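> tool_call: predict_assembly(chains=three)
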Amino acid sequence: MAGTRKDKQLDRRWIFLLIFMGVAIPLIFTIGFPIETTENVRLVNEMIDKTTKGSKVIMSFDYDPASKPELHPMGMAIMNHCFEKGLRVIVVALWPMGVQMAEEIFSDLTEKYPQVIYGEDYINLGYKAGGIVTIQAMGSNFREVFPKDMNGNEIDDFPILRGVEDFSNIGFIFSLSAGDPGIKQWVQVAHDKYGVPLSGGVTGVSAPAILPYVNEQKQLNGLLAGLKAAAEYEFLIETPGTATSGMDAQSIAHLIIIVFIAIGNITYWTTRKKVKREGEK
Amino acid sequence: MKRKIPLIITFAVGTLLILSEFIPHKPFGRLSGELENWFLIISGFAIILGQLSLFKVNIIKIKRKTPNWQYFIITLVSFMIMVLIGIFWGTEKNPGIFGNGQIIVDTIGYKPFDYLFHNVYQHLQATMFSLLAFFIASAAYRAFIARTVESNLLLFAAILVMLGNTSLGSSLTGWLPHSLSFLHLPRISEFIMKYPNTAGQRAIMIGAGLGIIGSSLRIILGIERSYLGGK
Amino acid sequence: MESFFTHLGVWLGALFTFAIFSFLYKDNPFYKIAEQLFVGLSAGYWFVYTIYFILIPNLFDPLSQDLAHNWIKLIPAILGIMMLMRLIPSQEWISRFPIALIIGTTSGVFFMRYLKSDVLNQLTATMINPFTGNHWGEIIGSILLILGTLSGVIYFYFSKKHEGSFGVVAKAGIYFLMVSFGAAFGYTAMARISLLIGRLQFLLGDWLGIIPN
């Protein structure tokens, strides 16, 4: 039928091209919109700031390259902050690619923190399957779950793991989570069963469903949600990185989507009016 | 027997784990701890099963010459290459059966397994998921129409959150005086996420949680048996 | 030589990035090849990592180094091999035993964890005094939180017809859910755009060198 909505709709490849340009151009010609911090990000920052120097903390890398643009900058900022505060980081992974993600971050930070020694201030224990059941096993017998580090060395050889039998002497746990298993399982076990302070970073997709855990029960001490939160954290620790440089492109892309929504609505309502008028005739 | 014994195992194991929550002492605590360790090992075999299944399914598709069967050869070849180089020379710090392949590392900068991961796999996966950015923009244009009260609420919440989650949003309303700071886009976005979104998501969480508790109980008691499969 | 392979790696990354992006124009053989390559490499990666990070340290090493103390690990080893019988159609029934253990363990854990975290703690977090906020916005928000959670839960109660005052409350629940879904869309759009930003940062930075890394 002539003048129907489908005829009036733009070929989607033009939308694809506009989105591509909308992201690429601000990356090349930066605008420099200011970054403002939000409450949830500040809560995470405060939790790390208040942790005693020398405390052992667990960072769980539960993501893969698909979520790297959002979670990698968070991981970089958090590990950076931990080393700056003199915290000792124990890395675990519930997703297999998380192991390599952690190693990439650590190798990028070794130049800035040459005093951080593997085995004393940092260790990567590698990947374990089993999700929530494995986290529960860690909480009752950590050394049984991780008898060796990612390089195949016995964990008894490392000073950082002395006295670590379960979660009882862990300062906090931070999960960088792209899905299942991830932060939800850490909340259910590490915090709700073992009472360990917990926080995390999630992709934008998971954020709305995880936010209810930021509550009076302190199931989560704040939450980093998406690339913007990563940029806010970089701002708080005064170390701009890839998240900060992506903010301009994020803004323009969102504006383009909103414009398209407006155009779609205008097209729909004007076409509907026309069809109604033609029907009445 | 082929169905009765698994049902008994499910009941025994499920009940043990629930009891160990209330009685963490011997023998329940010890038994549940042992079960959790076994779970980890069996999960490893389950993952191996998944990959071998994929291998088997692709072989069948090639044998039967299903449409586009030639592409499945690529799946099999890339799978075999990744597994063989991983077993022969290992991963980053884990040696394989031929050691650490130091000559290869000195030549290409990585072990072959890690080289493929960093330079091929990472890019393939990241790009595959980044395609969604285009589709979400296209879907928003076509489907996001303000027709009813519900769709209006959805639309306006989406727009406010999208603007509030960018530094552009901060700039658009950054000039507002302190008395009107509640209209600042990032504040509005934070309010929406902290209160109405949390309320809605919490309702979903409680409903889903009750559903999962019900399903778990049905499985433990043997009412739900679909996991056993056929005869 | 290492430098050559580093550059080759970047070009391979760019090539496969464009192979996947070509799908946006039209489905084509380059995309199909890249897609199947991704599937194969992914499966191979998981296979290798499972061996090195789970089976070797948690099973083979304890059994080979100290069988006397670790003999009990023979049980999950046998169960694991029984799991693999699923590949042989005539022996598929053998895999039911380890599956039963997995399902039983998961059900037992889920029962307690979801009850505590997703039901009891969420209900407790809703039972707040809304009038203790410092700012009128917090007070209104807390009231909305309580009303929204209650009406949302009432909406999901399908054992009673949604009519009369019950229907009004359920309708309010839908409105709160719609706001949630809108917020979820906003965050999803942000997430997806972030992934595209990551890809373009690689293409413009690492590959073309137009922007700093």
